[in-house]
Design goal:
single chain; 501 residues; mainly beta; eight-stranded antiparallel beta sheet; five-stranded antiparallel beta sheet; globular
Length: 501
Protein backbone atom coordinates (compact mmCIF):
# COMPACT_ATOMS: atom_id res chain seq x y z
CA UNK A 1 0.00 0.00 0.00
CA UNK A 2 1.37 3.40 -1.00
CA UNK A 3 1.03 6.22 1.53
CA UNK A 4 0.64 9.81 0.47
CA UNK A 5 3.14 12.10 2.18
CA UNK A 6 2.06 13.97 5.28
CA UNK A 7 1.62 17.56 3.98
CA UNK A 8 4.69 19.73 4.54
CA UNK A 9 4.41 22.05 7.47
CA UNK A 10 6.00 25.01 5.70
CA UNK A 11 2.77 26.58 4.41
CA UNK A 12 1.19 26.25 7.84
CA UNK A 13 4.17 27.81 9.60
CA UNK A 14 4.22 30.72 7.16
CA UNK A 15 0.47 31.28 7.41
CA UNK A 16 0.57 31.12 11.20
CA UNK A 17 3.50 33.54 11.34
CA UNK A 18 1.69 36.01 9.07
CA UNK A 19 -1.46 35.91 11.19
CA UNK A 20 0.51 36.45 14.36
CA UNK A 21 2.47 39.31 12.87
CA UNK A 22 -0.73 41.00 11.69
CA UNK A 23 -2.20 40.60 15.14
CA UNK A 24 0.80 42.24 16.72
CA UNK A 25 2.80 39.26 18.01
CA UNK A 26 4.83 36.19 17.02
CA UNK A 27 5.16 32.88 18.85
CA UNK A 28 8.22 30.96 17.60
CA UNK A 29 8.08 27.22 17.02
CA UNK A 30 9.45 24.97 19.74
CA UNK A 31 13.23 24.84 19.82
CA UNK A 32 14.62 21.82 17.99
CA UNK A 33 15.84 18.91 20.09
CA UNK A 34 19.62 18.60 20.50
CA UNK A 35 20.13 15.04 19.35
CA UNK A 36 23.88 15.23 18.88
CA UNK A 37 25.19 11.75 18.05
CA UNK A 38 23.33 9.92 20.78
CA UNK A 39 21.24 6.84 20.11
CA UNK A 40 17.47 7.24 20.38
CA UNK A 41 15.25 4.30 21.31
CA UNK A 42 11.55 4.01 20.60
CA UNK A 43 10.61 3.39 24.22
CA UNK A 44 8.73 6.69 24.54
CA UNK A 45 7.44 9.50 22.37
CA UNK A 46 10.35 11.90 22.96
CA UNK A 47 11.32 11.97 19.27
CA UNK A 48 7.85 11.40 17.79
CA UNK A 49 5.75 14.24 16.37
CA UNK A 50 3.08 12.14 14.66
CA UNK A 51 2.29 8.57 13.63
CA UNK A 52 0.08 7.35 10.82
CA UNK A 53 -0.72 3.65 10.63
CA UNK A 54 2.23 2.82 12.93
CA UNK A 55 2.47 2.30 16.68
CA UNK A 56 4.91 1.79 19.52
CA UNK A 57 5.08 -1.87 20.49
CA UNK A 58 6.59 -3.51 23.58
CA UNK A 59 8.61 -6.69 22.97
CA UNK A 60 8.73 -9.79 25.12
CA UNK A 61 12.10 -11.04 26.43
CA UNK A 62 12.90 -14.67 25.69
CA UNK A 63 13.26 -17.10 28.59
CA UNK A 64 16.75 -18.63 28.40
CA UNK A 65 16.43 -20.79 31.51
CA UNK A 66 17.96 -20.98 34.97
CA UNK A 67 21.52 -19.74 35.44
CA UNK A 68 22.03 -19.89 39.22
CA UNK A 69 20.44 -21.98 41.97
CA UNK A 70 20.13 -20.50 45.44
CA UNK A 71 20.85 -23.82 47.08
CA UNK A 72 23.68 -23.10 49.54
CA UNK A 73 22.77 -23.23 53.28
CA UNK A 74 23.37 -19.47 53.65
CA UNK A 75 21.28 -18.60 50.55
CA UNK A 76 17.87 -20.23 50.59
CA UNK A 77 14.31 -19.65 49.50
CA UNK A 78 14.23 -15.90 50.18
CA UNK A 79 17.26 -14.91 48.08
CA UNK A 80 16.53 -11.69 46.25
CA UNK A 81 17.32 -8.02 45.54
CA UNK A 82 19.79 -9.03 42.85
CA UNK A 83 22.22 -6.66 41.09
CA UNK A 84 24.34 -7.47 38.02
CA UNK A 85 27.42 -5.34 37.27
CA UNK A 86 29.89 -5.46 34.40
CA UNK A 87 33.46 -4.53 35.36
CA UNK A 88 35.54 -4.80 32.20
CA UNK A 89 35.54 -8.45 31.12
CA UNK A 90 34.14 -9.63 34.45
CA UNK A 91 30.51 -9.79 35.49
CA UNK A 92 29.43 -9.82 39.12
CA UNK A 93 26.06 -10.69 40.57
CA UNK A 94 25.11 -9.62 44.11
CA UNK A 95 22.12 -10.96 46.01
CA UNK A 96 20.71 -11.42 49.47
CA UNK A 97 21.12 -14.77 51.18
CA UNK A 98 18.22 -15.40 53.54
CA UNK A 99 17.57 -19.02 54.53
CA UNK A 100 14.25 -20.27 55.82
CA UNK A 101 13.52 -19.14 59.37
CA UNK A 102 15.64 -15.99 59.18
CA UNK A 103 13.80 -12.73 59.86
CA UNK A 104 14.24 -9.60 57.72
CA UNK A 105 17.04 -7.33 58.86
CA UNK A 106 18.66 -9.79 61.26
CA UNK A 107 22.13 -11.31 61.55
CA UNK A 108 21.05 -14.36 59.58
CA UNK A 109 21.12 -12.43 56.31
CA UNK A 110 24.26 -12.21 54.15
CA UNK A 111 25.27 -10.63 50.85
CA UNK A 112 26.45 -13.17 48.28
CA UNK A 113 28.25 -12.77 44.96
CA UNK A 114 28.36 -14.76 41.73
CA UNK A 115 30.84 -14.35 38.87
CA UNK A 116 30.73 -14.85 35.12
CA UNK A 117 32.78 -14.16 32.03
CA UNK A 118 29.87 -14.18 29.59
CA UNK A 119 26.65 -13.70 31.56
CA UNK A 120 25.47 -17.15 30.48
CA UNK A 121 27.28 -19.34 33.01
CA UNK A 122 27.67 -18.24 36.61
CA UNK A 123 29.83 -19.59 39.43
CA UNK A 124 30.02 -18.91 43.15
CA UNK A 125 33.58 -17.99 44.17
CA UNK A 126 34.96 -19.34 47.43
CA UNK A 127 36.14 -16.14 49.09
CA UNK A 128 36.90 -17.14 52.68
CA UNK A 129 35.91 -13.74 54.09
CA UNK A 130 33.17 -14.63 56.58
CA UNK A 131 32.28 -17.76 58.47
CA UNK A 132 28.62 -18.62 57.94
CA UNK A 133 26.91 -21.91 58.75
CA UNK A 134 30.20 -23.17 60.13
CA UNK A 135 32.37 -22.54 57.08
CA UNK A 136 34.39 -19.84 55.31
CA UNK A 137 34.22 -21.83 52.10
CA UNK A 138 31.52 -19.58 50.67
CA UNK A 139 30.69 -16.65 48.37
CA UNK A 140 29.69 -14.16 51.08
CA UNK A 141 31.00 -10.56 50.81
CA UNK A 142 29.01 -8.97 53.66
CA UNK A 143 27.81 -10.49 56.94
CA UNK A 144 27.63 -9.87 60.69
CA UNK A 145 26.39 -6.31 60.20
CA UNK A 146 22.58 -6.33 60.24
CA UNK A 147 20.47 -5.04 58.62
CA UNK A 148 22.66 -4.04 55.67
CA UNK A 149 22.67 -7.41 53.93
CA UNK A 150 18.90 -7.22 53.72
CA UNK A 151 19.03 -5.05 50.59
CA UNK A 152 22.68 -4.29 49.76
CA UNK A 153 22.64 -2.55 46.36
CA UNK A 154 26.05 -1.88 44.75
CA UNK A 155 27.12 0.13 41.70
CA UNK A 156 30.36 0.69 39.79
CA UNK A 157 31.55 4.31 39.63
CA UNK A 158 32.95 4.79 36.10
CA UNK A 159 34.72 8.14 36.34
CA UNK A 160 38.55 8.28 36.19
CA UNK A 161 38.71 10.73 39.11
CA UNK A 162 37.37 8.09 41.50
CA UNK A 163 39.71 7.16 44.39
CA UNK A 164 41.05 3.64 43.90
CA UNK A 165 39.44 2.38 47.08
CA UNK A 166 35.95 3.59 46.08
CA UNK A 167 35.41 2.21 42.57
CA UNK A 168 32.43 0.29 43.87
CA UNK A 169 29.77 2.06 45.92
CA UNK A 170 26.60 0.79 47.56
CA UNK A 171 23.60 1.86 49.57
CA UNK A 172 21.98 -0.32 52.20
CA UNK A 173 19.70 0.02 55.18
CA UNK A 174 16.08 -0.10 56.29
CA UNK A 175 13.57 2.42 57.57
CA UNK A 176 14.86 2.16 61.14
CA UNK A 177 18.47 2.97 60.15
CA UNK A 178 18.29 5.07 57.00
CA UNK A 179 20.58 4.36 54.08
CA UNK A 180 24.31 3.93 54.72
CA UNK A 181 26.99 4.32 52.05
CA UNK A 182 29.56 1.58 51.46
CA UNK A 183 32.65 1.58 49.22
CA UNK A 184 35.02 -1.07 47.88
CA UNK A 185 38.14 -1.16 45.70
CA UNK A 186 37.23 -4.48 44.07
CA UNK A 187 33.58 -5.24 44.72
CA UNK A 188 34.52 -7.90 47.28
CA UNK A 189 35.98 -6.11 50.31
CA UNK A 190 33.53 -3.50 51.61
CA UNK A 191 33.58 -0.79 54.29
CA UNK A 192 31.18 1.91 55.43
CA UNK A 193 31.95 5.32 53.96
CA UNK A 194 30.43 7.11 56.96
CA UNK A 195 29.42 6.05 60.46
CA UNK A 196 25.99 7.63 60.01
CA UNK A 197 23.30 7.28 57.36
CA UNK A 198 23.83 9.42 54.25
CA UNK A 199 20.08 9.34 53.53
CA UNK A 200 18.48 9.34 56.97
CA UNK A 201 14.95 8.27 57.71
CA UNK A 202 12.62 11.22 58.16
CA UNK A 203 9.16 11.55 59.61
CA UNK A 204 6.49 11.07 56.94
CA UNK A 205 6.05 14.17 54.84
CA UNK A 206 3.60 13.79 51.96
CA UNK A 207 4.78 10.18 51.65
CA UNK A 208 6.33 7.55 53.92
CA UNK A 209 9.94 6.63 53.34
CA UNK A 210 10.41 2.86 53.10
CA UNK A 211 13.96 1.61 52.60
CA UNK A 212 13.18 -2.09 53.01
CA UNK A 213 13.63 -3.05 49.32
CA UNK A 214 16.43 -2.34 46.84
CA UNK A 215 17.62 1.27 47.15
CA UNK A 216 19.68 1.73 44.02
CA UNK A 217 22.05 4.46 42.93
CA UNK A 218 24.07 5.19 39.81
CA UNK A 219 26.24 7.91 38.31
CA UNK A 220 24.40 9.77 35.55
CA UNK A 221 26.63 11.02 32.75
CA UNK A 222 23.78 13.07 31.29
CA UNK A 223 22.99 14.80 34.60
CA UNK A 224 26.54 14.70 36.03
CA UNK A 225 25.45 13.54 39.46
CA UNK A 226 24.51 10.47 41.45
CA UNK A 227 20.86 9.51 41.30
CA UNK A 228 19.12 7.26 43.83
CA UNK A 229 15.68 5.69 43.43
CA UNK A 230 14.01 4.08 46.43
CA UNK A 231 10.61 2.82 47.46
CA UNK A 232 8.13 4.93 49.40
CA UNK A 233 4.48 4.57 50.31
CA UNK A 234 1.84 7.03 49.16
CA UNK A 235 -1.49 5.21 48.80
CA UNK A 236 0.45 2.37 47.18
CA UNK A 237 4.10 1.34 46.89
CA UNK A 238 5.75 4.03 44.80
CA UNK A 239 9.18 5.41 43.89
CA UNK A 240 11.07 8.52 44.99
CA UNK A 241 14.21 10.08 43.55
CA UNK A 242 17.07 11.93 45.25
CA UNK A 243 20.40 13.16 43.89
CA UNK A 244 23.94 13.90 45.07
CA UNK A 245 27.25 15.24 43.82
CA UNK A 246 29.40 13.26 46.25
CA UNK A 247 27.38 10.17 47.32
CA UNK A 248 27.21 11.60 50.85
CA UNK A 249 24.96 14.68 50.71
CA UNK A 250 21.62 13.93 49.10
CA UNK A 251 18.77 16.23 48.10
CA UNK A 252 15.23 16.15 49.49
CA UNK A 253 13.51 13.23 47.73
CA UNK A 254 10.88 13.87 45.07
CA UNK A 255 7.96 11.55 44.47
CA UNK A 256 7.98 10.10 40.95
CA UNK A 257 4.83 10.23 38.85
CA UNK A 258 3.81 8.05 35.91
CA UNK A 259 2.60 9.18 32.51
CA UNK A 260 1.03 7.37 29.55
CA UNK A 261 0.32 9.28 26.31
CA UNK A 262 0.70 12.57 28.20
CA UNK A 263 -1.78 11.62 30.93
CA UNK A 264 -1.35 10.23 34.43
CA UNK A 265 -1.01 6.45 34.48
CA UNK A 266 -2.96 4.18 36.82
CA UNK A 267 -1.27 3.84 40.21
CA UNK A 268 0.02 0.31 40.70
CA UNK A 269 2.15 -1.26 43.41
CA UNK A 270 5.76 -1.05 42.18
CA UNK A 271 8.00 -2.91 44.58
CA UNK A 272 11.51 -2.70 43.11
CA UNK A 273 12.13 -0.11 40.41
CA UNK A 274 15.47 -1.31 38.89
CA UNK A 275 16.10 2.00 37.13
CA UNK A 276 19.44 2.44 35.34
CA UNK A 277 21.01 4.29 32.38
CA UNK A 278 20.86 2.11 29.29
CA UNK A 279 24.51 1.62 28.38
CA UNK A 280 23.97 2.25 24.64
CA UNK A 281 21.90 5.40 25.30
CA UNK A 282 22.81 6.55 28.83
CA UNK A 283 20.58 9.65 28.70
CA UNK A 284 17.62 7.25 28.83
CA UNK A 285 17.06 5.46 32.13
CA UNK A 286 15.23 2.16 31.76
CA UNK A 287 13.26 0.58 34.59
CA UNK A 288 12.22 -3.08 34.65
CA UNK A 289 10.02 -2.97 37.74
CA UNK A 290 8.40 -5.59 39.91
CA UNK A 291 4.64 -4.98 39.83
CA UNK A 292 3.12 -6.41 43.01
CA UNK A 293 -0.57 -7.30 43.28
CA UNK A 294 -1.35 -7.98 46.96
CA UNK A 295 -4.21 -10.27 47.86
CA UNK A 296 -4.63 -11.71 44.37
CA UNK A 297 -4.26 -15.47 44.79
CA UNK A 298 -3.56 -17.69 41.77
CA UNK A 299 -2.83 -21.07 43.37
CA UNK A 300 -4.63 -23.09 46.02
CA UNK A 301 -3.46 -23.81 49.54
CA UNK A 302 -2.97 -27.44 48.50
CA UNK A 303 -0.77 -26.50 45.54
CA UNK A 304 1.30 -24.22 47.76
CA UNK A 305 1.76 -27.00 50.33
CA UNK A 306 2.85 -29.45 47.63
CA UNK A 307 5.50 -26.99 46.43
CA UNK A 308 6.64 -26.29 50.02
CA UNK A 309 5.96 -22.58 49.61
CA UNK A 310 6.85 -20.64 52.76
CA UNK A 311 3.83 -19.91 54.91
CA UNK A 312 1.68 -17.09 53.54
CA UNK A 313 3.69 -16.64 50.34
CA UNK A 314 1.01 -17.76 47.89
CA UNK A 315 -1.52 -15.03 48.64
CA UNK A 316 -0.14 -12.44 46.16
CA UNK A 317 1.09 -12.36 42.56
CA UNK A 318 3.56 -10.23 40.62
CA UNK A 319 5.11 -9.65 37.21
CA UNK A 320 7.55 -7.19 35.61
CA UNK A 321 6.67 -3.97 33.81
CA UNK A 322 8.75 -1.61 31.69
CA UNK A 323 9.16 2.14 32.17
CA UNK A 324 11.63 4.83 31.15
CA UNK A 325 12.67 8.30 32.21
CA UNK A 326 15.08 10.93 30.94
CA UNK A 327 15.63 12.50 34.34
CA UNK A 328 13.27 14.57 36.44
CA UNK A 329 10.28 13.29 38.36
CA UNK A 330 8.28 11.52 35.63
CA UNK A 331 8.40 7.92 34.46
CA UNK A 332 7.00 7.27 31.00
CA UNK A 333 4.73 4.25 31.21
CA UNK A 334 4.37 4.04 27.46
CA UNK A 335 3.27 0.43 27.90
CA UNK A 336 0.92 -0.59 30.71
CA UNK A 337 0.92 -4.30 29.88
CA UNK A 338 3.44 -6.68 31.43
CA UNK A 339 7.01 -6.90 30.13
CA UNK A 340 7.88 -10.28 31.68
CA UNK A 341 5.01 -12.48 32.73
CA UNK A 342 5.37 -15.16 35.34
CA UNK A 343 6.01 -18.55 33.73
CA UNK A 344 3.69 -21.52 33.50
CA UNK A 345 3.02 -23.73 36.49
CA UNK A 346 1.93 -23.06 40.04
CA UNK A 347 5.47 -22.41 41.33
CA UNK A 348 5.65 -19.22 39.28
CA UNK A 349 2.51 -17.73 40.80
CA UNK A 350 3.58 -17.12 44.38
CA UNK A 351 4.10 -13.88 46.23
CA UNK A 352 7.12 -11.82 45.13
CA UNK A 353 8.03 -14.19 42.33
CA UNK A 354 9.37 -12.83 39.05
CA UNK A 355 11.21 -9.87 40.60
CA UNK A 356 13.75 -8.50 38.07
CA UNK A 357 17.41 -8.04 38.92
CA UNK A 358 19.05 -4.64 38.49
CA UNK A 359 21.39 -4.72 35.50
CA UNK A 360 20.90 -5.06 31.73
CA UNK A 361 24.06 -6.34 30.07
CA UNK A 362 25.28 -7.30 26.61
CA UNK A 363 25.90 -11.04 26.26
CA UNK A 364 26.42 -11.37 22.51
CA UNK A 365 27.09 -9.39 19.36
CA UNK A 366 23.38 -8.66 19.00
CA UNK A 367 22.03 -9.80 22.38
CA UNK A 368 21.05 -8.25 25.71
CA UNK A 369 20.42 -10.20 28.89
CA UNK A 370 18.43 -9.42 31.99
CA UNK A 371 17.77 -11.62 35.00
CA UNK A 372 14.74 -12.50 37.10
CA UNK A 373 14.36 -14.20 40.50
CA UNK A 374 11.94 -17.10 40.31
CA UNK A 375 10.45 -19.81 42.55
CA UNK A 376 10.58 -17.32 45.40
CA UNK A 377 9.87 -18.66 48.92
CA UNK A 378 10.42 -22.23 47.65
CA UNK A 379 13.25 -24.76 47.94
CA UNK A 380 13.77 -24.42 44.17
CA UNK A 381 14.50 -20.65 44.27
CA UNK A 382 16.81 -19.62 41.43
CA UNK A 383 17.80 -16.90 38.97
CA UNK A 384 16.74 -17.03 35.32
CA UNK A 385 18.15 -15.26 32.29
CA UNK A 386 16.03 -13.54 29.66
CA UNK A 387 17.31 -12.19 26.34
CA UNK A 388 16.45 -9.44 23.84
CA UNK A 389 18.11 -8.04 20.75
CA UNK A 390 20.22 -4.92 21.32
CA UNK A 391 17.86 -1.96 21.84
CA UNK A 392 15.00 -4.42 21.51
CA UNK A 393 12.81 -3.40 24.45
CA UNK A 394 10.27 -1.74 22.18
CA UNK A 395 9.95 -0.66 18.58
CA UNK A 396 8.06 1.51 16.18
CA UNK A 397 5.95 -1.11 14.40
CA UNK A 398 4.22 -0.80 11.02
CA UNK A 399 1.93 -3.54 9.71
CA UNK A 400 1.67 -5.01 6.22
CA UNK A 401 -0.61 -2.14 5.21
CA UNK A 402 2.16 0.35 5.97
CA UNK A 403 2.63 3.40 8.15
CA UNK A 404 4.55 6.63 8.62
CA UNK A 405 6.48 8.39 11.35
CA UNK A 406 7.24 12.10 11.40
CA UNK A 407 9.83 13.09 14.00
CA UNK A 408 10.11 16.33 15.88
CA UNK A 409 12.64 18.85 14.63
CA UNK A 410 16.16 18.30 15.92
CA UNK A 411 19.83 19.09 15.36
CA UNK A 412 22.40 16.31 15.06
CA UNK A 413 26.14 15.70 14.78
CA UNK A 414 27.71 13.15 12.47
CA UNK A 415 27.78 12.22 8.81
CA UNK A 416 25.57 9.13 8.55
CA UNK A 417 22.28 7.81 9.88
CA UNK A 418 22.21 4.28 11.34
CA UNK A 419 19.07 2.24 12.01
CA UNK A 420 18.45 -0.82 14.18
CA UNK A 421 15.54 -2.53 12.42
CA UNK A 422 13.85 -5.69 11.24
CA UNK A 423 11.59 -6.14 8.22
CA UNK A 424 9.68 -9.01 6.67
CA UNK A 425 10.56 -10.24 3.19
CA UNK A 426 7.87 -7.94 1.77
CA UNK A 427 8.48 -5.08 4.19
CA UNK A 428 10.84 -2.15 4.07
CA UNK A 429 11.82 1.31 5.31
CA UNK A 430 12.51 4.55 3.46
CA UNK A 431 13.69 7.75 5.15
CA UNK A 432 13.21 11.35 4.12
CA UNK A 433 14.93 14.42 5.58
CA UNK A 434 13.02 17.70 5.76
CA UNK A 435 14.21 21.22 6.57
CA UNK A 436 12.95 23.52 9.34
CA UNK A 437 10.03 24.61 7.17
CA UNK A 438 8.97 21.01 6.67
CA UNK A 439 10.11 20.96 3.04
CA UNK A 440 11.93 17.98 1.54
CA UNK A 441 15.65 18.64 1.26
CA UNK A 442 16.73 17.97 -2.35
CA UNK A 443 18.45 14.62 -2.67
CA UNK A 444 16.99 13.33 0.61
CA UNK A 445 13.41 12.53 -0.41
CA UNK A 446 11.87 9.18 0.49
CA UNK A 447 11.89 8.34 -3.22
CA UNK A 448 15.68 8.91 -3.27
CA UNK A 449 16.26 6.55 -0.33
CA UNK A 450 17.55 3.07 -1.03
CA UNK A 451 14.86 0.84 0.49
CA UNK A 452 16.05 -0.75 3.72
CA UNK A 453 15.26 -4.47 3.89
CA UNK A 454 16.57 -7.09 6.32
CA UNK A 455 17.38 -7.41 10.01
CA UNK A 456 20.40 -5.50 11.29
CA UNK A 457 21.61 -3.67 14.38
CA UNK A 458 23.33 -0.81 12.51
CA UNK A 459 22.40 -0.32 8.83
CA UNK A 460 23.54 2.96 7.28
CA UNK A 461 20.80 4.80 5.34
CA UNK A 462 21.62 5.87 1.77
CA UNK A 463 20.02 8.26 -0.67
CA UNK A 464 20.93 7.74 -4.32
CA UNK A 465 23.76 5.53 -3.05
CA UNK A 466 25.10 8.35 -0.86
CA UNK A 467 25.11 8.08 2.95
CA UNK A 468 26.77 11.43 3.72
CA UNK A 469 24.50 13.77 5.71
CA UNK A 470 27.29 15.92 7.16
CA UNK A 471 26.15 19.05 5.31
CA UNK A 472 22.90 18.93 7.28
CA UNK A 473 24.55 18.63 10.69
CA UNK A 474 23.84 21.36 13.26
CA UNK A 475 20.81 22.70 11.40
CA UNK A 476 17.17 21.99 12.30
CA UNK A 477 15.78 19.00 10.40
CA UNK A 478 13.25 16.26 10.88
CA UNK A 479 12.83 12.75 9.52
CA UNK A 480 9.89 11.16 7.77
CA UNK A 481 9.86 7.37 7.78
CA UNK A 482 7.78 5.41 5.30
CA UNK A 483 7.36 1.93 6.79
CA UNK A 484 5.88 -1.44 5.83
CA UNK A 485 5.74 -4.67 7.87
CA UNK A 486 8.72 -3.77 10.02
CA UNK A 487 10.07 -2.86 13.45
CA UNK A 488 12.33 0.15 13.99
CA UNK A 489 14.15 -0.16 17.33
CA UNK A 490 16.55 2.76 17.37
CA UNK A 491 18.35 5.36 15.29
CA UNK A 492 21.60 7.20 15.63
CA UNK A 493 23.59 9.80 13.72
CA UNK A 494 27.24 8.80 13.80
CA UNK A 495 30.60 9.62 12.28
CA UNK A 496 32.37 7.35 9.83
CA UNK A 497 35.23 7.15 12.31
CA UNK A 498 32.84 6.16 15.11
CA UNK A 499 32.81 2.64 16.49
CA UNK A 500 29.15 2.08 15.66
CA UNK A 501 28.79 0.08 18.90
Amino acid sequence: MQFQPIPPAGWLLRATSLCLILSGGFVPAAAPLELGSRRELFVDRALIDSLRGAELRLHEPRDEGSVLKFDAPWEGEHCGYTTVIRDGERLRLYYRGMPAGVKDGTGGEVTCVGESADGLRWTKPKLGLFEVHGTKDNNVVLADDPPFSHNFSPMLYPRPDCPAGERYKALAGVSETGLFAFVSPDGVHWRKLRTAAVIPTKAPFKFSWMFDSQNLAFWSESEQKFICYFRVYERVRRIARTESRDFVNWSEPVLMTYRTEGHDSPLEELYTNQTEPYFRAPHIYLAVCARFVPGRQAISDAEAAALKVAKGYHKDVSDAVFMSTRGGSVYERTFLSSFIRSGSGARNWVSRNNYPALGIIQTGATELSLYVNQDYAQPTAHLRRYSLRLDGFASLFAPYEGGELLTKFFKFRGDRLELNFSTSAIGGIRVEIQDEAGQVIPGFAAADCTEIIGNEIARVVRWKNNADVSKLASQPVRLRFVLKDCDLYSLRFAAVTGNGD
